[in-house]
Design brief:
Blueprint lengths: L15 E4 L19 E10 L2 E15 L5 E12 L10 E5 L8 H8 L2 E4 L12 E4 L9 E6 L7 E2 L11 H18 L7 E7 H16 L6 E7 L14 H16 L10 H22 L5 H15 L3 H6 L6 H7 L6 E3 L7 E3 L12 H21 L37 H10 L4 E7 L7 H8 L6 H4 L2 E6 L9 H18 L1
Helix pairs in contact: 2-3, 3-10, 4-5, 4-11, 5-6
Length: 506
């Protein structure tokens, strides 16, 4: 589930730097030595919306302590705080992270919430450098301070002292350490009485559901609101496990949206929302019933389902017959445009790429990821070491995938589900039931095959909440993919929805 995961406007940015970085920290091999926490502080201004916002950027690390007061990690972050705010009880702060697991916060940081954004050639391939970085007119800094968080193994974050990186690489371990970071940042910066929000993307939504409950139950910190971007809380909805048909059902509406976008249906739907409601009804009704019957399905009924399935997905009846009505995500992305010698993206299926093997069953790469990742990486590095004046001797890791021994522990403590398919929806339900004022907003793209929107709906509708608590959840949809904010018109909508959520619920 790698999360690699804009209105164009002219804005003003001026920077003056006061760097407090010391000498480089010891290498990870010298883990028994506790390094210093360092930071670079710079001052800027930017036009956000129709106002000039003066702000301070703090990029660096803090030393994370565990419940035994032992220093266990050097934790990296970037904080943006609006200047001139004297009453911090009225100024929200939002903690932002991506997912993976194993991804840094670069994507949300430089694509959606921060004061600077990467310009892409969406939805076509972005040309090679030089890339373009511009001020983000749709940043949320006008309504909330922002802290982007890099979990251990990403950014500058790593285990120190007696701890090891692997101690942080797991569902429960990650929830705990991110919660500890939030508590420590809040304490260090006098934000205990500020309105507080969590904004996570992809695996970051699974993290947020656990963190909001952990903060509340273990640390006595209530969160005002949780913003879930490209939602997956129950891993079972994505895994296409043998003998479990739920993933096929929940992916079908997204298959239909993608097929419609690429003009692979008999006719273009006049209204996308109405069309997707129709496909949802088929998926949860006739299609689910047919899959439930398994090998007992009547041939006539199977033929009827095949006809509708082909009409909704753009795949041939012959292919669907061979698939026994069940097509998983990498099969779909490879098959849909096979005759055009193309494959479609997983994170954002508006993107197309060259199909390198016309005989292959599964797609071998994600055209969206291949298109945008180099631009994000290059511009972030320029920005971090240039505008934010971070010491170049510190090596920023975009992801943890190259880290030695990186594996993820999916097991959970207590009764929180199958260890192979954890579900932090139970954590979110617990937090919402015990804090009836906690509000949640989901944001999902119609063309996202990494975390399909119908899977989000299924999970939210199975939290077992009382109706008055269920009403605290709002759903927002975008005509884009996993990183809906890379499409300029959807970035403006993203900002509008997030800003309204924060200003209305603080």
């Amino acid at each position: 589930m790698r999360n690699i995961f804009q209105t164009a406007a002219i804005a003003l940015l001026s920077a003056s730097a006061v760097s407090s970085f010391a000498q480089p920290s010891p290498s990870p091999a010298a883990n028994d030595t506790i390094p210093k926490a360092d930071k670079s502080v710079t001052h800027h201004s930017a036009k956000i919306g129709d106002k000039i916002i003066n702000y301070t950027a703090t990029a660096g690390t803090l030393l994370l302590k565990n419940e035994k007061d032992e220093t266990v990690a050097l934790y990296g972050f970037t904080a943006y705080t609006k200047d001139g705010e004297t009453d911090l009880s009225k100024r929200p702060v939002t903690f932002v992270y991506n997912g993976g697991p194993g991804s840094s916060s670069v994507w949300l940081h430089m694509g959606a919430v921060g004061p600077r954004r990467v310009v892409l050639n969406d939805p076509d391939a972005t040309p090679p450098p030089p890339y373009k970085l511009e001020d983000n007119n749709s940043s949320i800094l006008d309504v909330t301070d922002i802290v982007t968080v890099d979990p251990v193994g990403t950014g500058f974050s790593r285990a120190v002292g007696k701890a090891k990186n692997k101690d942080f690489w797991g569902v429960d371990q990650d929830i705990k350490s991110v919660s500890q970071f939030i508590k420590q940042y809040v304490t260090d910066n006098d934000r205990w009485n500020s309105p507080k929000y969590l904004l996570g993307e992809s695996y970051g939504t699974m993290r947020s559901a656990g963190v909001v409950d952990y903060l509340q139950e273990t640390m006595g910190m209530e969160i005002n609101g949780v913003i879930l971007v490209s939602v997956v809380l129950d891993l079972r909805t994505l895994t296409f496990q043998t003998g479990d048909d739920i993933s096929y059902i929940l992916h079908l509406p997204t298959y239909a949206a993608v097929a419609a976008f690429h003009n692979k249906l008999p006719s273009k739907p006049a209204n996308l929302d109405a069309f997707l409601k129709e496909v949802r009804d088929f998926a949860s009704g006739q299609y689910a019933s047919a899959l439930l019957k398994g090998d007992r399905i009547d041939p006539a009924e199977k033929e009827q389902v095949l006809t509708k399935l082909s009409a909704y997905t753009g795949l041939s009846k012959d292919y669907l017959t061979k698939a026994n009505l069940r097509v998983n995500e990498p099969q779909f992305t490879q098959e849909l445009l096979r005759n055009e010698h193309q494959t479609v993206g997983r994170l954002d299926s508006r993107y197309k790429g060259v199909n390198q093997d016309l005989l292959s069953e599964f797609s071998s790469y994600d055209p969206q990821s291949s298109s945008i990742s180099p631009a994000y990486t290059a511009l972030f590095m320029n920005y971090y070491y240039g505008e934010l004046k971070v010491n170049k001797n510190y090596d920023y890791h975009i992801s943890a995938y190259g880290a030695e021994g990186f594996t993820w522990d999916w097991k959970r403590g207590g009764n929180n589900g199958d260890p192979s398919t954890p579900n932090t929806g139970v954590d979110l339900a617990d937090a919402m039931s015990k804090n009836p004022n906690l509000r949640v907003m989901t944001l999902n793209g119609y063309y996202d095959l990494a975390t399909p929107f119908y899977g989000m709906e299924y999970t939210m509708e199975h939290l077992g909440l009382e109706k008055k608590i269920r009403d605290n959840i709002t759903y927002k949809y975008f005509e884009a993919g996993h990183m809906m904010y890379i499409r300029p018109v959807e970035l403006a909508k993203f900002k509008k929805e997030v800003a309204a959520f924060i200003t209305n619920s603080k």
